[in-house]
């Protein structure tokens, strides 16, 4: 079995980070901090003190310690083991955000997916292809609506387990950015393994340029989005997948309706919005939904833009986003 795990570190960062300021005299010098967290490489770059960047890193590490599903000492692991319990205010706030996004997406994003994710081996590294009977049975345990959260008290039904892997990086990026903003930072680019969170624009006033990886060609990018003071998060099947003995490729984004990797015609979903947590959950959810449902969902909202790259080689872009395609033909939606 060929196993391929890729850090979500894409051209996004190379491109975005290489475009640093010139011409103006920023108040602070640009500082960078690279570290490994949440199973990926993170790169923070900001016009801020080094110590402030280190504190922003601590915010990310703290969230990871609380909600890592693979760290048996985390609060989330305790919840999964005990079927509930009392959590810190920080973890309760993350769970509350995650559950509201499960509701928003009608369960295309569902944090109770963990038994399914584990059965496929994505958190254990023991990759396997469960039978349809097995995944159907596991689906019975997936239902975010059955999770009870009352202030700091959580109750899970029998056999249910939570996985925040589809939102933790986006949420952490948002929290880190809010902290930096509160401390006066007006220009930053935080790359949390391909989950990009920006503050303001580049010091010369121009937009940050974030590359979207080509889902069919790992060494290329499909296009570039220009963003200011927003987050951009991509979910793609290429991020983490394995090829089984049957020659098929299976990836880590699961369709909660089937308990199997979501294969609904979308190869990558990029979401751009103010809120990084929303971006992260929606990128997973819209990948699961497929292009038609994703488009209907977008029409029902006005708080995000998207780039969907489909199996048909089409790029679907919403009109609020400045996106320049490097390869695939673009279809821009209209309201
Ligand atoms: P990445 O973590 O590669 O950036 P995503 O944000 O799409 O990609 O998150 C995928 C992760 O989310 C999976 O590894 C798994 O832990 C979890 N997950 C998979 N499918 C779903 C789903 N339908 N809803 C919520 N979480 C999911
Ligand atoms: Mg996500």
Throw out a few tags for this protein.
335 residues; alpha+beta; nine-stranded mixed sheet; three-stranded antiparallel sheet; 9 helices; 20 strands; globular; binds adenosine-5'-diphosphate; binds magnesium ion
Beta-strand content estimate: 25-35%
- N-C termini distance: 45 Å
Give the strand line-up of the largest sheet: 2-3-7-8-11-16-17-18-20
Structural class: alpha+beta
Order of helices and strands: EHEEHHEHHHEEHEEEEEEEEEEHHEEEE
Question: Quick one: overall form?
Answer: globular
The whole-angstrom Rg is 19 Å
The poorly predicted ranges are 1-26
The ligands found in this model are: adenosine-5'-diphosphate, magnesium ion
Mean model confidence by pLDDT: 92
Number of helices: 9
How is the topology of this model organized?
Layout: E1 2-5, H1 11-18, E2 30-37, E3 40-47, H2 50-67, H3 75-82, E4 84-86, H4 89-104, H5 114-119, H6 132-139, E5 148-150, E6 153-155, H7 168-182, E7 188-192, E8 195-199, E9 208-213, E10 221-227, E11 231-236, E12 240-243, E13 249-251, E14 254-255, E15 260-261, E16 266-273, H8 276-289, H9 291-299, E17 305-310, E18 315-317, E19 322-325, E20 330-332
Parallel strand pairs: 18-20
Antiparallel strand pairs: 1-12, 2-3, 3-7, 4-6, 5-6, 7-8, 8-11, 9-10, 10-19, 11-16, 12-13, 14-15, 16-17, 17-18
Question: Please, could you describe this protein's structure?
Answer:
By secondary structure, the chain is of the alpha+beta class. Helices cover 30% and strands 28% of the residues. The protein contains nine helices and 20 strands. It has helices spanning 11-18, 50-67, 75-82, 89-104, 114-119, 132-139, 168-182, 276-289, 291-299, and strands spanning 2-5, 30-37, 40-47, 84-86, 148-150, 153-155, 188-192, 195-199, 208-213, 221-227, 231-236, 240-243, 249-251, 254-255, 260-261, 266-273, 305-310, 315-317, 322-325, 330-332. The strands form five sheets. The chain has a nine-stranded mixed sheet, sandwiched between helices. Strands 1-12-13 form a three-stranded antiparallel sheet, with no helix packed on it. It has a three-stranded antiparallel sheet with strand order 4-6-5. Helix 2 (50-67) runs antiparallel to helix 7 (168-182), helix 4 packs parallel to helix 8 and helix 7 (168-182) runs antiparallel to helix 8 (276-289). The longest helix has 18 residues, at 50-67. Mean pLDDT is 92; it is low at 1-26. Bound molecules: adenosine-5'-diphosphate (ADP) and magnesium ion.
